[in-house]
């Protein structure tokens, strides 16, 4: 699991306070979705191309299962980015590597091919900008 916390500056916090209370959750959801979509767009090209040895024929490519889901809770809004189940259930194996049991009973180490962590790291500034842009759009002018 990869956790990324975006810290907002005082200007962003002021924007949130200016948004009417009944509209605030929607604005935060939209901002989280925008930031998460930036990670999705960066992560998809980083995933190993379909057709690699061991790829499951007939299943959609891992890159086609990468999505952002937003969850709102009373004190926090989360954007969850990852491979959707069931088509992307093996996404963590590609990201972190794993042991694979072969037909002859031996095991081999499958090396990691990180795709999510590099996408999160590479897009931090863009995520922050997306959140702030959504909050600016939602906040009424003073």
Question: What does the model show?
Answer:
With 142 residues, the chain is an alpha+beta fold. The protein has one domain. It has five helices and four strands, in the order ααββαββαα. The protein has helices at 10-18, 21-43, 91-96, 116-122, 124-138; strands at residues 66-72, 77-83, 98-101, 107-110. The radius of gyration is 19 Å and the shape is elongated.
Q: Gist?
A:
This protein is α+β, with helices and mostly antiparallel strands and 142 residues long. It has helices at residues 10-18, 21-43, 91-96, 116-122, 124-138; strands spanning 66-72, 77-83, 98-101, 107-110. The protein has one domain (10-88, 115-138).
> What ranges have pLDDT less than 50 throughout 5 or more consecutive residues?
none
Tell me the count of domains: 1
Radius of gyration: 19 Å
Order of helices and strands: HHEEHEEHH
Kindly report how far apart the N and C termini lie: 40 Å
Beta content comes to 15-25%
Number of strands: 4
Globally, the shape reads elongated
Mean pLDDT: 86
Q: How much helix, percentage-wise, in residues?
A: 40-55%
Features:
142 residues; two-stranded antiparallel ribbon; 15% strand; alpha+beta; 4 strands
Layout of strands and helices, then pairs:
Blueprint: H1 10-18, H2 21-43, E1 66-72, E2 77-83, H3 91-96, E3 98-101, E4 107-110, H4 116-122, H5 124-138
Antiparallel strand pairs: 1-2, 3-4
């Amino acid at each position: 699991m990869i956790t990324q916390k975006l810290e907002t500056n005082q200007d962003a916090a002021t924007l949130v306070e200016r948004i009417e209370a009944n509209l605030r959750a929607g604005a935060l959801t939209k901002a989280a979705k925008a930031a998460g979509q930036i990670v999705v767009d960066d992560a998809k090209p980083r995933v190993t191309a379909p057709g690699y040895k061991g790829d499951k024929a007939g299943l959609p490519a891992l890159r086609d299962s990468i999505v952002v889901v937003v969850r709102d809770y009373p004190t926090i809004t989360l954007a969850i980015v990852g491979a959707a189940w069931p088509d992307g259930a093996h996404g963590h194996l590609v990201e972190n590597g794993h042991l694979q049991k072969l037909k002859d009973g031996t095991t081999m180490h499958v090396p990691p091919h990180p795709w999510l962590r590099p996408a999160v790291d590479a897009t931090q500034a863009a995520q922050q900008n997306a959140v702030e842009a959504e909050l600016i759009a939602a906040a009424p002018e003073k």
